[in-house]
Amino acid sequence: MKANKPKRIRLPQRSFRATPEQWKQIDRNVQESGLGNFSNYARRMLIEKQVVVVSKFEIEAIKELATELSRIGNNINQIARIANSTGKVFKAETVELVENQKEIASLLGQIITEHQTTRSNNYRTSQRC
What is the pLDDT of residues 1-24, one digit of tens each? Predict the structure, then answer.
Protein backbone atom coordinates (compact mmCIF):
# COMPACT_ATOMS: atom_id res chain seq x y z
CA MET A 1 0.00 0.00 0.00
CA LYS A 2 1.18 3.52 -0.79
CA ALA A 3 1.83 5.92 2.05
CA ASN A 4 -0.17 9.13 1.86
CA LYS A 5 2.29 11.70 0.58
CA PRO A 6 1.37 15.36 0.66
CA LYS A 7 0.77 16.77 -2.80
CA ARG A 8 3.64 18.80 -4.17
CA ILE A 9 2.71 22.43 -4.68
CA ARG A 10 3.86 23.79 -8.01
CA LEU A 11 4.69 27.44 -7.89
CA PRO A 12 4.24 29.78 -10.87
CA GLN A 13 7.24 29.89 -13.15
CA ARG A 14 8.53 32.93 -15.05
CA SER A 15 10.79 32.97 -18.07
CA PHE A 16 12.48 35.59 -20.22
CA ARG A 17 14.55 35.81 -23.37
CA ALA A 18 18.18 36.84 -23.63
CA THR A 19 20.90 36.74 -26.26
CA PRO A 20 23.67 34.14 -25.94
CA GLU A 21 26.06 36.90 -24.82
CA GLN A 22 23.60 38.03 -22.14
CA TRP A 23 23.21 34.42 -20.90
CA LYS A 24 27.00 34.12 -20.64
CA GLN A 25 27.11 37.32 -18.59
CA ILE A 26 24.22 36.13 -16.41
CA ASP A 27 26.01 32.81 -15.83
CA ARG A 28 29.19 34.70 -14.83
CA ASN A 29 27.16 36.88 -12.47
CA VAL A 30 25.54 33.81 -10.90
CA GLN A 31 28.95 32.22 -10.33
CA GLU A 32 30.45 35.43 -8.90
CA SER A 33 27.49 35.90 -6.57
CA GLY A 34 28.14 32.65 -4.75
CA LEU A 35 24.39 31.97 -4.56
CA GLY A 36 24.74 28.56 -6.17
CA ASN A 37 22.24 28.62 -9.01
CA PHE A 38 20.25 30.85 -11.31
CA SER A 39 17.00 30.55 -9.32
CA ASN A 40 18.60 31.81 -6.11
CA TYR A 41 20.36 34.62 -8.01
CA ALA A 42 17.20 35.68 -9.88
CA ARG A 43 15.08 35.69 -6.72
CA ARG A 44 17.65 37.85 -4.92
CA MET A 45 17.98 40.26 -7.85
CA LEU A 46 14.22 40.58 -8.38
CA ILE A 47 13.20 40.87 -4.73
CA GLU A 48 16.13 42.73 -3.18
CA LYS A 49 17.20 44.50 -6.39
CA GLN A 50 20.87 43.83 -5.75
CA VAL A 51 23.35 41.11 -5.02
CA VAL A 52 26.35 42.08 -2.94
CA VAL A 53 29.45 40.23 -4.04
CA VAL A 54 32.36 40.18 -1.63
CA SER A 55 35.56 39.62 -3.56
CA LYS A 56 38.42 37.42 -2.40
CA PHE A 57 40.49 40.60 -2.14
CA GLU A 58 38.00 42.10 0.31
CA ILE A 59 37.90 38.95 2.42
CA GLU A 60 41.71 38.81 2.59
CA ALA A 61 41.92 42.55 3.31
CA ILE A 62 39.39 42.21 6.14
CA LYS A 63 41.34 39.28 7.63
CA GLU A 64 44.56 41.30 7.41
CA LEU A 65 42.82 44.27 8.99
CA ALA A 66 41.50 42.12 11.84
CA THR A 67 45.03 40.81 12.48
CA GLU A 68 46.41 44.35 12.54
CA LEU A 69 43.67 45.51 14.90
CA SER A 70 44.49 42.62 17.23
CA ARG A 71 48.18 43.60 17.24
CA ILE A 72 47.32 47.22 17.94
CA GLY A 73 45.04 46.14 20.78
CA ASN A 74 47.91 44.15 22.28
CA ASN A 75 50.23 47.17 21.94
CA ILE A 76 47.69 49.44 23.62
CA ASN A 77 47.32 46.97 26.50
CA GLN A 78 51.11 46.82 26.95
CA ILE A 79 51.37 50.61 26.93
CA ALA A 80 48.51 50.88 29.41
CA ARG A 81 50.23 48.38 31.76
CA ILE A 82 53.50 50.33 31.55
CA ALA A 83 51.72 53.65 32.10
CA ASN A 84 49.79 52.27 35.08
CA SER A 85 52.86 50.72 36.73
CA THR A 86 55.38 53.53 36.05
CA GLY A 87 53.23 56.55 35.39
CA LYS A 88 55.16 57.12 32.14
CA VAL A 89 54.49 56.45 28.47
CA PHE A 90 57.45 56.03 26.14
CA LYS A 91 57.72 57.86 22.83
CA ALA A 92 58.65 54.69 20.89
CA GLU A 93 55.35 53.02 21.79
CA THR A 94 53.27 56.04 20.79
CA VAL A 95 55.17 56.31 17.47
CA GLU A 96 54.42 52.62 16.83
CA LEU A 97 50.71 53.20 17.50
CA VAL A 98 50.61 56.10 15.04
CA GLU A 99 52.32 53.95 12.37
CA ASN A 100 49.82 51.15 12.99
CA GLN A 101 46.93 53.59 12.66
CA LYS A 102 48.32 54.79 9.31
CA GLU A 103 48.58 51.18 8.10
CA ILE A 104 44.97 50.50 9.10
CA ALA A 105 43.81 53.67 7.33
CA SER A 106 45.66 52.49 4.20
CA LEU A 107 44.05 49.02 4.38
CA LEU A 108 40.61 50.54 4.86
CA GLY A 109 41.21 52.81 1.86
CA GLN A 110 42.11 49.79 -0.28
CA ILE A 111 39.01 47.90 0.85
CA ILE A 112 36.74 50.87 0.17
CA THR A 113 38.28 51.52 -3.27
CA GLU A 114 37.98 47.85 -4.29
CA HIS A 115 34.41 47.66 -2.97
CA GLN A 116 33.35 50.79 -4.85
CA THR A 117 34.94 49.47 -8.07
CA THR A 118 33.21 46.09 -7.65
CA ARG A 119 29.83 47.69 -6.93
CA SER A 120 30.22 50.07 -9.89
CA ASN A 121 31.08 47.18 -12.24
CA ASN A 122 28.17 45.08 -10.93
CA TYR A 123 25.77 48.02 -11.37
CA ARG A 124 26.90 48.59 -14.96
CA THR A 125 26.58 44.87 -15.67
CA SER A 126 23.06 44.69 -14.22
CA GLN A 127 22.03 47.72 -16.29
CA ARG A 128 23.13 45.97 -19.50
CA CYS A 129 21.22 42.74 -18.88
Answer: 566 777 778 688 888 899 999 999
